[in-house]
Model the fold of this input.
Amino acid sequence: MIGYLSGPITGNSNYEQQFSQAAEALAREGRDVINPAALDWAVPLKELSHEKIMAIDLKLLSMADYLVQLPGWKDSRGANRELGYAMAMGLPVFSLEELLEEGSHADEPARNL
Done:
């Protein structure tokens, strides 16, 4: 199963570290995740509008099996949009804390919203 990391990027000067640390923590638990904060390695994000970046993010989210909400997601317009998309797609939604508390023995996330 693949998770998609969702949290504040715009206006968050520490987003790369926050997303990277979350991805690494989940990897230690045996989980695979899509990290949209790492897109700048493959896509010239500075050349794209917010809308075009969101289109890429939602496409990536459509390939995931569940959404992982990082701290601060509630204050992010993009993360709220990702939540709505995930819910419309029927994807389970979890906080990072829930997944890390669950431990690496879980085959899949145990709860959704």
